[in-house]
Design a protein that fits this description.
The complex is a heterodimer.
Chain A lengths: L2 H25 L7 H18 L4 H23 L4 H20 L10 E2 L6 H19 L2 H11 L1 H6 L4 H27 L1 E2 L6 H14 L6 H16 L3 H18 L7 H7 L4 H9 L1
Antiparallel strand pairs in A: 1-2
Helix pairs in contact in A: 1-5, 1-8, 1-9, 1-10, 2-3, 2-4, 2-8, 3-8, 5-8, 6-8, 9-10, 10-11
Chain B lengths: L1 H29 L6 H17 L4 H22 L1 H4 L5 H22 L4 E2 L9 E3 L2 E3 L1 H23 L1 H11 L1 H6 L4 H27 L1 E2 L3 H16 L4 H21 L5 H15 L16
Antiparallel strand pairs in B: 1-4, 2-3
Helix pairs in contact in B: 1-6, 1-9, 1-10, 1-11, 2-3, 2-5, 2-9, 2-10, 3-9, 6-7, 6-9, 7-9, 10-11, 10-12, 11-12
Classes of the chains: A mainly alpha, B mainly alpha.
Chain lengths: 285, 291
């Protein structure tokens, strides 16, 4: 496989992982604009562990995810006291503070960036990505998925039905951050160099855009969004700058024409023959 | 030294205040966090440079930059608010984020990504008062920002259009039932927000004399912080918030180090969100949920 192709596929896999990190809170009705901060914690923590203690990169990446989740859990309690726009802005502030703190942390290179010695290749990263997709899909097939969707659709009714809405929100936020941290660790161990500047608000926004474009009604939406918007710019070629222009224009047009995202729950039901109304219509015809 | 820092902080804060007013207008009336505003700020700054660079006299360049930016803001209205009113609440926010990306990268395509330097138009006009240096453009900037925000609050309080806008802010469906022409007034909100972002961009370009396509991000993010600190939906709160953020930034650069600015500013934002999410000076209850 050519290096170019491998590079793109690695980026695709990492973006898929990030997208699921953003999807979990969105599915519970929260917008996490600080996702890049949690990805950065995972990247730096795993790189520090594998550089300093020479532990296996896979273990280091998992521990990095746990570190990101731990920070998320600590901030979740006060952050999730806020609602709607305030919540989005609180997560945004957390992301900015993490980035600024890492820029000042000399033990991981500060503003100069941090080289990573251990190296992982595409198969490992693809396996992680597939694992994340399967895990989230399984999770959403359980009671947890139904509860989270209920909290998203109407928090008050979910509360009245006896769900501990806050616990589910904290869980979705924390779990999403663990996944984002794992994504950061994967990125760090493939590209061999990380700098805090990469994990900026632009990254958080782009990942959230992948998820919303793919559609948040189904578990497969983020996968589709991340895949289309990682691969499409490669097909269009053009300079990096024009890629962003195309991406942004695509977002604006897509949101105007199809605000529910590319993939909806109704489409999936129809595809799998689970849509009774459509089936009976077909039979009648 | 402290006094001079304070003056510099107030000048920077007046730029943040204008951005915060643009944001707060959008949130207060439409309940829409308009992420395109940092992009509009950048367009105004870059357009000022481009027009002056092309040999246009500076007063005309300023007017041109303001007009271009307000027009672009109306385009944003077409593609965010107008189409997406019935959609999920986060959708206009998402589109406005895409507009920020679009503006930044179109600016790179047109003007290149390097830092552009404006000529010094007001050299030698600094005032020295009791040992403090006060730049005339900075002073004019502060006066313009206070005067325009005062004008806006008069418009909102005293005119019939202002009453209509406040009705939309209360409840846009009820406003429609009461005969308020929402479709005619929403573009007015966007034009006003664009104008405030543009004034901030022009003032920034003339005062700091450096512009580049990503200049909107740092200032826009601090404008958001200023808006929250002052209280969402409150125009005078935006001034107070802008000054608090500007002074916090300049003091943390002066006494702790430039690398700690973001920690100080966004730490303050987070603290306010936890402790008093309605802001320090909130006059209006805003943020009725929804993203």
């Amino acid at each position: 496989m050519s290096g170019y192709l491998e590079g793109i596929l690695v980026l695709l896999a990492v973006n898929v992982v990030f997208a699921y990190g953003a999807f979990l809170p969105v599915a519970a009705g929260q917008l996490n604009l600080g996702l890049a901060g949690f990805a950065a914690i995972g990247a730096y923590a795993s790189a520090y562990l594998s550089n300093t203690y020479a532990i296996d990169p896979i273990l280091a990446i998992l521990l990095g995810g746990i570190a990101a989740g731990a920070v998320a859990l600590i901030v979740a309690v006060p952050v999730l006291r806020t609602r709607g726009i305030y919540l989005a802005l609180a997560t945004f502030a957390v992301g900015q503070i993490v980035q600024a703190a890492l820029l000042n942390l000399e033990v991981v290179g500060g503003a100069a960036g941090y080289p990573v010695t251990a190296f992982i290749r595409l198969p490992t990263i693809a396996a992680f990505a597939a694992g994340v997709v399967v895990l989230v899909a399984l999770l959403f097939a359980t009671r947890f998925g139904i509860a989270v969707t209920a909290v998203h659709d109407d928090e008050r009714v979910a509360d009245l039905m006896g769900l501990n809405t806050r616990a589910f929100q904290v869980a979705a936020f924390t779990l999403g951050s663990v996944i984002a941290g794992i994504g950061g660790g994967l990125y760090a161990h493939h590209f061999s160099f990380i700098e805090a500047q990469y994990f900026n608000i632009g990254l958080s926004i782009t990942i959230v855009l992948y998820v919303l474009l793919g559609g948040t009604q189904t578990v497969l939406g983020p996968l589709l969004g991340a895949a289309v918007f990682t691969l499409l710019p490669e097909l269009l070629r053009g300079s990096a700058n024009w890629r962003y222009v195309h991406f942004a224009a695509a977002v604006i047009i897509l949101m105007a024409l199809r605000p529910q995202g590319l993939l909806t729950a109704a489409q999936i039901r129809r595809l799998l023959g689970l849509d009774r109304a459509a089936l009976s219509r077909e039979r009648a015809a | 030294m402290l006094g001079q820092q304070f003056i510099n902080g107030v000048m920077l804060g007046s730029v943040y205040a204008m951005v915060a007013v643009a944001l707060t207008l959008s949130i207060g009336v439409l309940n829409f966090l308009n992420f395109s505003i940092p992009g509009l700020f950048m367009i105004a700054g870059m357009a000022t440079w481009a027009l002056i660079h092309a040999g246009v006299a500076w007063p005309l360049a300023i007017l041109g930059a303001l007009a271009i930016t307000a027009a672009v803001s109306l385009v944003v209205e077409r593609f965010t608010w107008r189409w997406l009113r019935g959609a999920e609440p986060f959708v206009p926010l998402v589109s406005s984020m895409a507009f920020l990306l679009l503006f930044e990268h179109l600016a790179i395509a047109w003007w290149g990504s390097e830092m552009r330097v404006l000529p010094s138009l007001f050299a030698g006009t600094d005032w020295r008062v009791a040992g403090f240096v006060i730049g005339v453009p900075q002073l004019v900037g502060l006066a313009v920002s206070i005067a325009s925000i005062f004008g806006l609050s008069l418009l909102l309080k005293r005119t019939s259009m202002g009453r209509s806008l406040r009705t939309i802010a209360e409840d846009s469906d009820t406003a429609l039932l009461l005969g308020v022409d929402v479709n005619r007034l929403v573009p007015v909100v966007f034009a006003l927000a664009g104008l405030f972002a543009a004034l901030a961009g022009v003032l920034f370009a003339l005062n700091y004399r450096q512009v580049q396509p990503f200049m909107g991000e740092a200032v826009g993010l601090k404008g958001i912080s200023a808006m929250i600190v002052g209280g969402m939906g409150s125009t005078w709160g935006a001034i107070a918030g802008g000054l608090v953020i500007g002074i916090t930034e300049v003091l943390s650069v002066g006494y702790v180090g430039a690398n700690f600015v973001d920690i100080a500013v966004f730490g303050l934002l987070l603290l306010i969100l936890f402790v008093r999410p309605t802001g320090l000076f909130a006059g209006l209850p805003a943020g009725r949920g929804g993203i």
